[in-house]
TrEMBL record:
SUPFAM superfamilies tied to this protein: BPTI-like, Elafin-like, Immunoglobulin, Kazal-type serine protease inhibitors, TIMP-like
GO MF, one example: transforming growth factor beta binding
Secreted in keyword set: yes
Ranges for domain WAP: 57-110
Domain Ig-like: 223-316
One BP term from GO: transforming growth factor beta receptor signaling pathway
Name the record gives this protein: WFKN1 protein
Lineage: Eukaryota, Metazoa, Chordata, Craniata, Vertebrata
Length: 584
């Protein structure tokens, strides 16, 4: 019978649960980016890394090291080289096993008795035509059979989703995964809390230690940190931990992610182990036997019915003693031009994990440095990178909301850069940060609050039919992010449908995200005027030198069934061909 897999408290993702029936089958993409794993089995080796999902393909004998002995898990993740998709990509004596990079690598197979028996090569099971009914579950192969498994990987692009359980999720994927973990069904609802936050006022001095101050117990209070997040350095082989202490009502749920340059982040939940990383039942993240690959930015996400908070905790893993003087020190200021250069990932010497400044994101990230030394945009620690390319101060409006440990309560305002709004909170009176304002007006003056200007409505170059015929592409997509420049910008969309595409091959290459260049933009009154809250949009534009572009008169309108159906009818009737003949 079909079996389903879910995560339970204290257990890793990948455990069997009751059959679910029919639902959606996980989409497998070849040639695209691989998703980063989020859950692993803790007690039993149930998922055979490297199983093929295609009918007629075979697997190599033996198992991955961590399947034979959980203590050998690090051995199976010890390399990010020799990437593979299935056992057939490896030597006959090897298995294709999950590595720490979120991909798979060829690793020598293990056997229970130390031998290598000649196991018969049997065709692997397939997820084709196998469906899962539980929300947030996908088909996977377990013990040679298709099973339903809770989602354990989610996109890192924000698309805040308010759910029927009263919580705000980072995007819909997170909501679906939570529904599967609970064995229930969640639906999206209009957001009522994140845009109208509760009024707060000081509480009596008799309040007990570390309360959630503010309105009555029935009023939700958004998460706020007790202390500022900070950078830590640890020597290779050492142990380090991060605590994400937050207030809020109801008590916020805590998850951790390791930031990466990949499409999706590595998500970790409380009371579970992920290789040499453990998240305790109180939400503390602990890293044992730290390796260079563990260096990076660990992000704590705290959410409840009133809102969402994310805080970054950078970690550097160094070979020298933490706190010692860096090997390279110079009284000369670091050239700012070096910070704008792309990191050199070529391999000339031994590879090590270093930090580089990412000019597009305006932050320091890790990468694998090969020692070629073509530029200076590589640093041993996060702090060295920040000092060289950002200075000591972090932009006020990017800092998280910090309540502080003291109890001298007073109402304050802070800017939430995720929601792009100023919100009220109660400040404890000490150990806060500069994202702390006495009034909403002051907060909005300092931070980029979207002021309501008297802007004229955007004028289209032409109506739907002419716009469709003159455009190189027409898509239905959700706006994920906008990056502003002086008179241009970049808009990133999650594609939901491709209505027309003459030059980019969006359907052929199964493209899920599209980056569009915005030209001739006036950011005080932008046209096209788009926000992430608009929902699905119909976007029509042109392609220049392989780049999708929009100008102020491009067709951008809210997507609805009537408009999408109309475009499909126009395409089926080849209206544009007839129109071009008539014009000729």
């Amino acid at each position: 019978l079909p079996r389903a897999v879910a995560s339970e408290p204290g257990r890793g993702a990948g455990w069997p649960m009751a059959p679910r029936g029919s639902g959606a089958v996980r989409e497998r993409r070849s040639g695209g980016r691989q998703r980063s794993p989020v859950g692993i089995a803790l007690l039993l080796p149930v998922l055979a890394a490297g199983l093929s999902l295609q009918t007629g393909r075979t697997r190599h004998p033996g198992v991955c090291p961590n399947q034979l002995n959980p203590n050998l898990w690090v051995d199976a993740q010890s390399t990010c080289e020799r990437e593979c998709q299935a056992d057939q990509d490896c030597e006959d004596f090897e298995k294709c096993c999950t590595n720490v990079c979120g991909l798979r690598s060829c690793v020598a197979a293990r056997f229970a008795d130390g031998s290598a028996p000649a196991l018969a090569l049997t065709p692997a099971a397939s997820c084709e035509s196998f469906v899962c009914a539980q929300q947030g579950s996908d088909c996977d192969i377990w013990d040679g059979q298709p099973v339903c498994k809770c989602k354990d990987r989610c996109e890192k692009e924000p698309n805040f989703t308010c759910a029927s359980d009263g919580l705000t999720y980072y995007n819909k994927c997170y909501m679906d995964a939570e529904a599967c973990l609970r064995g229930t069904r969640l639906t999206t609802v209009p957001c009522k809390h994140i845009f109208t936050w509760p009024d707060t006022s000081p509480v009596p001095q008799e309040t007990t230690a570390r309360p959630t101050p503010g309105a009555g117990p029935e009023v939700p209070v958004p998460p706020a940190l007790y202390t500022n997040p900070f950078h830590q350095s640890v020597r290779a082989g050492g142990t380090v931990s991060f605590r994400c202490d937050v207030s809020g009502r109801p008590r916020p749920d805590i998850t951790w992610e390791k930031q990466s340059e990949r499409e999706e982040n590595f998500i970790m939940r409380p009371d579970q182990m992920y290789g040499n990383v453990v998240v305790t039942n109180i939400g503390q993240l602990v890293i044992y036997n730290a390796r260079q690959e563990d260096a990076g930015i660990y992000t704590c996400t705290a959410r409840n019915a009133a809102g969402l908070l994310r805080a970054d905790f950078p970690l550097s893993v160094v070979r020298r003693e933490p706190g010692a003087t860096p090997r390279e020190s110079s009284p000369q200021p670091f050239p700012s031009a070096e910070c704008l250069k792309e990191p050199d990932r070529r391999r000339c010497e031994a590879v090590e994990v270093r930090w580089h400044f990412n000019a597009k994101q305006g932050s320091c990230l890790t990468f694998r440095y090969g020692g070629c030394g073509t530029n200076r945009n590589h640093f041993e620690t996060y702090e060295e990178c920040r000092a060289a390319c950002l200075g000591s101060a972090r932009p006020t409006c990017l800092l998280p909301m910090v309540q502080g440990p003291c109890q001298n309560w007073e109402p304050r305002w802070a800017y939430n850069h995720l929601l792009k709004q100023c919100h009220s909170f109660v400040y404890g009176g000490c150990e806060g940060n500069t994202n702390n304002f006495e009034s909403k007006e002051t907060c909005e003056d300092v931070c980029p609050f979207p002021k309501s200007l008297q802007c004229k409505a955007c004028r289209l170059k032409s109506k739907m039919v002419l716009s469709l015929c003159r455009s190189d592409f027409a898509i239905v997509g959700r706006l994920m992010e906008i990056v502003e420049d002086q008179d241009s910008g970049i808009a990133r969309f999650a594609l939901e449908d491709v209505l027309k595409d003459e030059k980019m091959g969006l359907k052929f290459f199964n493209i899920k995200y599209l980056e569009v260049t915005l030209t001739d933009m006036d950011w005080s009154c932008p046209c096209p005027n788009m926000t992430a809250e608009d929902g699905p949009l119909i976007i029509m534009g042109e392609v220049h030198d392989g780049m999708a572009t929009l100008d102020p008169s491009s067709y951008v309108r809210a997507a609805n069934d009537k408009r999408v159906k109309k475009i499909y009818e126009l395409m089926e009737k080849k209206t544009c061909d007839l129109l071009n003949r008539f014009q000729d």
